[in-house]
Design brief:
heterodimer, A: alpha/beta, two-stranded antiparallel ribbon, 6 helices, B: alpha/beta, 8 helices
Chain lengths: ~260, ~325
């Protein structure tokens, strides 16, 4: 089974996010980039399928800060190939341009075809102008399903049984013709941990293939323009209780008791 | 005359989704500002009768087709695209829910239209649509302008109160439209999988102590369990904790999991991403404990403590026990 995983770097929200002086973007000098969480699950799902069914896993990402780390980590976890698209600034232009770039790279060859399954995260925290999975599927003329938590290809590899989440714990089972693009919400197992030493070893013994950016139809212009960014307003914010864990807890407990909650 | 505001009327398992009413209320506000009308598009198979609940729309466009029985994003987007090419709406509001996710992106791609996700409000500024979108897990708010005449907006849950989009009256006009869809789609719905009954029903609890990634390790969940026990409640978790396998799926709170309505909800080590917040809107009192003072959870909580859940939970348990001890 030929599996391709699309990876995307996003600002790590565990870190402080600051707005750049222009007011319409993040201050990228402060932001730390990390692999989009559901992309990590997509990678895990691909590795699980490879273990179960045999085949190869290729990972493809557009160049961004820290992307080499993410790609070498994928190789250390068991991916067979890692490709990086030299974006030429397009990475800042939004998800639609990014998906366009990825779809063109896939269609252009680079030995990525034929592919049985293209997996990526169901949604990233900065997917302002669209989602990667349906956009890539649309451009390549492949079926798409998102919020996926289980993928079971039939042995012949023509069809897969795919489970997606709804709400309240209800899920739905679909039959999907392959090849297809799936947006993974969470893998069937938590993403595996790989020791730093193994990633370092991958850096020494394996390589990232660099792909030149294909030309985009509209120059990668975004169809949605961010006019301004702000941090959420303070209005309606929680009453903050200061102090040591003990003193703050005692005060909070008093407040809750006054409300009949303790 | 500007085009109308369309709302994709999401329904699931025979019921109109709450987010449809929220989107109708939002759509009506936008239509009023733009001087146009809000219209609901009801796609499905054997679901026509649901149109009677969509009276907040000036008109319902209903299309019935076997391929529309369950939402397959490509098929739904194709049906919407065919209708939109005929009727030329100005804005299409699509719910950002697990049922409908992906439809808006595909519709915009088919029509060459702007798509803007994560919208929690929509305004009209100088006659043009300006979307207020929430990015980076709720940490940043943006004002976004569309670059095309038609714009497809993905609407977050909670953009308006659902009651504002309900009407006792049926819609004035229901038009039945035809759509031409492939007979053999490459994605076929097979069955629903019901959740396994959990050992507890988190939707029925008065007190919930919820833990998120910030709890650090599976072992630390015991700290939340102790607090829950002291308060007479149970523990639940946000998605990362469930995905790690630290807690059973039946205890997941949020978009894919349960929507809860306890009197007291203590969120420990939970950042407050919109997907989680969606599940706790019914809680009466929310307390948040997080190391990050900028965490979005503090915008929805009533009381907040900046600190490590691993330190605060035991302290809070102790405080509750000592108060209970005194009361006894």
């Amino acid at each position: 089974m030929n599996l391709l995983v699309l990876l995307k770097m996003v600002p790590d929200v565990v870190e402080e996010l600051d707005i750049a002086s222009g007011g319409a973007g993040l201050d990228m000098d402060v932001a730390r980039m990390a692999l989009s969480e559901s992309d990590d699950h997509a990678l895990e799902q691909a590795l699980l399928l490879k273990e179960r069914m045999g085949g190869t896993v290729a990972v493809l990402a557009v160049d961004a800060a820290e992307v080499d780390d993410a790609l070498f980590t994928a190789l250390a976890k068991g991916a067979d190939r890692a490709l990086k698209v030299d974006a030429g600034g397009v990475s800042q232009a939004g998800t639609r341009a990014l998906a366009d770039l990825l779809a063109r790279v896939i269609a252009d060859g680079h030995n990525l075809l034929p592919v049985d399954l293209i997996l990526t995260g169901t949604q990233a925290i900065d997917d302002l102008d669209g989602l990667v999975a349906p956009l890539v599927a649309h451009q390549l003329g492949l079926p798409y399903l998102g919020i996926v938590t289980e993928v079971t290809p039939e042995p012949a590899g023509k069809v897969a049984s795919v489970v997606k989440e709804y709400s309240g714990g209800v899920r739905g089972r679909f039959e999907v013709d392959l090849p297809a693009v799936l947006g993974i919400q969470s893998a069937e197992r938590p993403p595996r941990y790989v020791p730093v030493a193994k990633v370092r070893a991958a850096m020494k013994t394996q390589r990232i293939e660099t792909v030149e950016a294909p030309t985009l139809a509209d120059g990668g212009m975004a169809l949605a323009e961010v006019k301004s960014m702000s941090k959420p307003e303070e209005a309606g914010r929680a009453e903050m209780i200061e102090g040591t864990p003990e003193s703050a807890s005692a005060r909070l407990c008093g407040i809750l008791a006054d409300r009949g909650l303790v | 005359m500007p085009g109308n505001i369309w709302v994709l009327a999401e329904h699931w398992r025979g019921k109109i989704s709450e987010i449809t009413f929220e989107a109708l209320a939002l759509g009506r506000d936008v239509a009023d500002q733009l001087g146009s009308k809000v219209e609901a598009v009801l796609l499905g198979h054997g679901a026509k009768d649901l149109a009677s609940e969509l009276g907040a729309a000036a008109r319902v466009i209903s299309a019935d087709h076997p391929a529309l029985a369950e939402v397959v994003p490509e098929v739904y987007a194709e049906a919407l695209a065919q209708l939109a090419r005929r009727e030329r709406p100005a804005v299409v509001l699509t719910p950002l829910s697990n049922v409908t996710l992906g439809v808006g992106t595909l519709l915009a791609a088919k029509l060459g239209a702007s798509a803007i996700n994560f919208c929690k409000d929509v305004r009209v500024v100088d006659g043009k649509i300006e979307a207020h979108a929430v990015l980076y897990g709720g940490k940043i708010e943006t004002k976004v302008a569309a670059a095309t005449e038609l714009v497809v907006l993905g609407i977050m849950p909670g953009a308006r109160l659902p009651d504002a989009g309900r009407s006792a009256e049926p819609p004035a006009v229901v038009d039945e439209a035809t759509v031409d869809l492939p007979a053999a789609p490459p994605i076929r719905f097979k069955e629903f999988i019901e959740p396994e009954a959990g050992e507890v029903d988190v939707t029925q609890q008065d007190v919930l102590v919820a833990v998120g990634r910030g709890i650090g390790s599976q072992d630390n969940i015991a700290l939340a369990e102790e607090l829950a026990e002291a308060l007479g409640g149970v523990v639940c978790g946000s998605r990362p904790v469930i995905d790690q396998g630290w807690m059973s799926l039946s205890r997941q709170v949020g978009k894919s999991g349960a929507s809860v309505k306890p009197r007291l909800y203590i969120a420990a080590g939970i950042s407050g991403a919109p997907e989680h917040v969606e599940g706790i809107r019914g809680a009466t009192t929310i307390v948040a404990v997080n190391t990050d003072p900028q965490a979005p959870i503090f915008a929805v909580a009533h009381y907040g403590i900046v600190g490590d859940a691993q330190d605060v939970l035991p302290a809070l348990t102790e405080a509750v026990r000592s108060r209970r001890g005194k009361a006894a």
